[in-house]
Amino acid sequence: MSAPVLPLSPPASLHGVQRLLAGLFPDSEAPGTETPLELTSADPQPARLISAMIIEDGELRAREVEGEVDANFVAFLDGTQSSLVARYQRGGVPIVLGTVAAVIRERRERRLYTWRHVVERRLYVPRAQVSASVWQRFTSTGLEVRDIADDDNQSAAEHPLAMREAAVHRVQKDRERAEQSLALEWCRSEERYLFVDGPISGTEPVAHAQCAVGVVKTHRTLYASGEALSRVLSLGHGERSSVFLVTSPKRAPVASWYLRIRDPRGQEPMWALLRVEVSPSGVTGAEVTRRADEVSRWILAEAAPVSLPDGRWDKMVYGVRDCEEFLRAIV
Amino acid sequence: MTQPLENHHSELQIPRSARDDRVDPLGRVVATERKPNTPHEFHFWTALDSPVGIGTIVRVEGTQPVNGQLPEIYGIVVEGFSYTDLATPLHDMLGHDGTPGGASLSATQRAEIRLYTAAVLRQVPEEPLQPVPMGTVYLADDHDVAVALRMDGYLKEGSNTGIPIGVYRAGASDSVIYVDADFLIGPEAAHLNISGVSGLATKTSAIEWTLSSIFAHFPQSKGSVAAVCFNVKGPDLCFLDQPGTIDDADRALYEKCRVPATPFEHVKYFAPYKSDGFSLNTLRSNDALLHNVSSLTWGLREVLQYAEVLLNKDDVDAKADALIDFIRERIVDREFSDPLLGNRRYLVRSFADLETWFRDVLSALEGKNGEGWRSHHIATIRKVRNRLSNISTRCAGLVTDDGAVSDLPFGSFEDRTVYVIDVASLEEDAQDLIFARVVTKLREHLEKRDLGVNHVVVFVDELNKYAPHDGQETYVRKMLLDLAERGRYLGLVLFSAQQFRSQVHRRVVGNSGTALYGRMDSDELATPGYAVLSPAVKTKLATLDKGQLMVRHPHFTQPIFVRFPRPAVMRGRDGAERYPQATDLDIDAAVLRSLRSLDPSITLGWVRDAVGIREEDEILRARNATLRERPADVRKFFLAQLRPVVASQAAPRPQAAAIRSAPADDPYGF
Predict the structure, then answer these.
(1) Which residue of A46, A277, A298, B108 could cross-link A72, Cys pair, CB 3.0 to 4.6 Å?
(2) Mean pLDDT to the nearest integer, A205-224
């Protein structure tokens, strides 16, 4: 579970934090820019192909989604993050103000309303690069302070850029945690279906919940190679791949398949291509096909209205865009 | 008589603290750099299903104290916007593959906003005047409406000068909108003007409703008030004393406004005769309704005072004017003699007398081959004779040759009484003459404080005809301008109506403190006079339903939309069907009808016996005298006005000489 939501006061804005830090650390320096680090940091995850265990058809092939599209999702979950350097300590140590937020927007009478949301702001500081007294002063700001080094990244490099990227990575983890906490809350109280923007494998209970469906838009990792990959990238509108099992040492296993939600003709291969994750519990035999077609029909029903003018409108369903707009408005 | 109601707006005395504080917010104020709030305008958004519309009054509660007081801002919605998160319509079309029917299949509706712009009605505190702050927006309740429209100033105890003009409706609440009697009847401001397209009966209905409201609520402390209405078209105002058809919704509005849902109790009608001189020239000529209809006839003296109404500038040059003055000062109602006329004594009291006098003067001049008399050239005399003689022809029925006068009861006007003058069937000249003389007499009596009432509301319809913004200057227009600009000091108030406000003289409508607008024509709304209204308000004005008005009043910083009930009086059209106009009568029946209003026992047989074979002029003179005197013994007085008729006697037959009888013995008779 993520940390409890902090009160928005004091201080809530970047400038407020900067003023506070400037007061606490007069010798610190202003960053000179307010560009979120997410826009300047390189994606740490390399593009890769991973083979997965096929649990439908014996091999990965294209299947037409059977049946009429049917909107059965009642809520959408998405999160957002923002990492901004508030000050630089002497020696180029970046002090990052990280903001993460997540929301579930429930659909009632075809309109979306907030079911629950969280907003968290923290200072991300490389503890190894500051003295104990300085760390103590950070904690006096009223903001939660988090070391950018975590279990995955015990020794953040001294390179300022590496420290910034580590901070972004840590903020991302907090964002995922915020999303997962909301998803978990939904799954504990609801049986209706939740559309989760992103994977659901991060939390065991959510990954095993029947009500949560994860939809992944980015494909840095593709679970196919060779001819199978070719079939995935050649999926037509309303076609899905065979179902496969995604497993990871640090993540819960999920049943997954690729789905093309729009006509890709004239577009790049991954245009309008989604990867769907559902709980693997009970998804065996003929049930695999029935379940994959059923969920695919739900997702295809979300193809309208389109999420333009968002550049990812080919893959982004409108409910997720609405979540993003909501978070943009409140963060 | 309708009595003013006491404590009619006690519900507005509810202290603020007693109000229900659990009211849900309606919206929130928003402002951006591109669309900022100002001291006179602000923006707010609402839920999609909120009961807000153009004309809704709202209250904003600020959160930052100003001078130690949380600001409250009152506004009225003047514009509305709705949009979604679509960047371009093309995106929506693409999203549905160009198939409009697909839109309904969309599982989610786009995020949508209702954004409104409100014009500030009032800020509390009023100083310092600041841009409207961010805050929560609430639907205005009764108290808010009173404060927003500054009605609290004249509805408070000790003032109570509110006159209900209608009900403002928003959501589930109704609030009575009051105008200030001091600004409607005077003396602070005065006059009321109403515009609206024809055919909806809104203008006449609104005036009738407003008069009812004034009669019910005009404070006793302000004195008495009466109304003089000119019925200029059809039977519009001919049945003000007859009950009309109203429904439960109307009754509720009457009850809310505390105005009796009854026709006017005291109405007196006046109409000239037709050219025959004895049939009333009005649609209210049905026998059943004649009890309060009086004739309106004027003689030479009355008309000569207003000769310039009927004589245009081409007619009346300085020379003619001088002759008319001479006649007015030296001839009319005075014994006059002149050597030119052989020292014959003239007493000119009627057009007939004047015609005789003119004829003798001109004959004498022609006889002497003279070109002038008493500095007046013979051509001028001919011209004035021609024009003045023509008046009795042009205004036949109103102007009598015999000088008989039947007039409004100047000097004994009664409180809360409507005096209707039916000029609908008259020629334009006669209408102008009546209008000019009546208003002038009202003004004269009000100046002398001897009219009988302290305030008179004069209602004139078709104002664009009587006070057009263009065209030549006329006496009537000058008089209307004078009335609009100075009448309020006297208690003479102009209620006027027209279809197109833009076609009325600006000074007349400009001096109307209160303006009402019914449904307006789009072309009219495009004229510069409406430039201050937002497009949404114009759209609302162009689609107003019957019974809806937009009100401007000096206390209201923005126009307000109200509903008013149908008048509780019979509509003109209904009245004309229920009480058909009497067919033209012979003179005996006409006299009977007139005298019966004084003595119901008189019969047609008695009248026929009384008038016998007398000339019409003599009969009408007797009738007019009787009506004027209203004697206790009508029969005796009427008979006394008729010249005695010598009883006819059979001529004695001449005695014929007896025929001598033939001798018995003369066989040939010789």
Answers:
(1) A298
(2) 94
**Residue A118, min C-alpha distance to chain B (Å):** 21
Q: Do B107 and A322 count as a contact with CB atoms less than 8 A apart?
A: no
Q: How confident is the model at residue B1 (pLDDT cuts 50, 70, 90)?
A: very low
Distance between CA atoms of residues B136 and B144, nearest Å: 15
| Statement: residue B111 has pLDDT above 60 | yes
Q: What is the pLDDT of residues B410-450, one digit of tens each?
A: 999 999 999 999 999 888 888 888 998 999 999 999 999 99
B122 and B267 housed in the same domain: no
Chain B residues with CB inside 8 Å of A112's CB?
A: 108, 111
For an interface test with A, which of B30, B108, B109, B112 has the most A Cβ atoms less than 10 Å from its Cβ?
B108
Count of structural domains, chain B: 4
Mean pLDDT of the B52-60 span: 95
Domain assignment present for A59: yes
For every residue of B575-631, DSSP letters joined together read: HHHHSPPPPPPPHHHHHHHHHHTT-TT--HHHHHHHHTT--HHHHHHHHHHHHHH--
- B291 and B305 share one domain: no
Look up the pTM and report it.
0.80
| Statement to judge: residues B593 and B570 lie in one domain | no
B1: in domain: no
Taking phi over 0 as left and psi of -120 to 50 as alpha, with beta for the rest, B630 belongs to: left
A112 and B CB contact within 8 Å = yes
Q: Give me the number of domains chain A comprises.
A: 1
Structural domain of residue A212, as residue ranges? 14-330
**Helices B428-448, B475-490: inter-axial angle, 10-degree rounding:** 30
Query: Is residue B278 very low, low, confident or very high in pLDDT (cuts 50, 70, 90)?
Result: confident
Is there a domain that residue B187 lies in?
A: no
Token pair, residue B292, equals 């309060």
Instruction: Write the single-letter amino acid at B487.
Output: G
Please report whether residue A40 resides in a domain.
yes
Q: Do B106 and A304 touch (CB under 8 A)?
A: yes
Q: What is the pLDDT of residue B316?
A: 66
B362 CB-contact burial (10 Å; exposed 0-12 / middle 13-18 / buried 19+): middle
Q: Which chain A residues are closer than 8 Å to B85 by Cβ?
A: 321, 325
B121 with B57: CB under 8 angstroms?
yes
| Cβ-Cβ contacts under 8 Å, A266 against chain B | none
Which domain range does residue B233 map to?
195-296+406-574
B66: CB partners within 8 A, 6+ apart: B125, B128, B130
**Rounded CA separation A198/B86 (Å):** 24
- At B320, is the pLDDT very low, low, confident or very high (cuts 50, 70, 90)? confident
Give the least confident one: B61-65, B346-350, B482-486. B346-350
Alpha-carbon span B54 to B550, nearest angstrom: 12
B425 and B329 co-located in one domain: no
pLDDT in tens, B134-182: 999 999 999 999 999 999 999 988 778 999 999 999 877 789 999 999 9
Which residue in this structure is represented by tokens 């079939």? A231
- Does A3 reside within a domain? no
A105 lies in a domain?
Answer: yes
Bridge partners of B399, per DSSP, are: B298, B396
User: Which residues of B fall within a CB distance of 8 Å from A321?
Assistant: 85
Q: Minimal CA–CA distance to B297: which of B233, B414, B392?
A: B392
Given an 8 Å threshold on Cβ–Cβ distance, is A322 in contact with B111? yes
Q: How many CB pairs under 8 A join A and B?
A: 52
Claim to verify: residue B528 and residue B558 sit in the same structural domain: yes
CB of A113 closer than 8 Å to CB of A101: no
Question: How far is Cα B465 from Cα B505, in angstroms, rounded to an integer?
Answer: 10
Cα distance between residue A148 and residue B249, in whole Å? 71
Tell me, yes or no, whether B493 and B464 share the same domain. Answer: yes
Chain A residues closer than 8 Å to B107 by CB: 71, 73, 107, 110, 301-302, 304
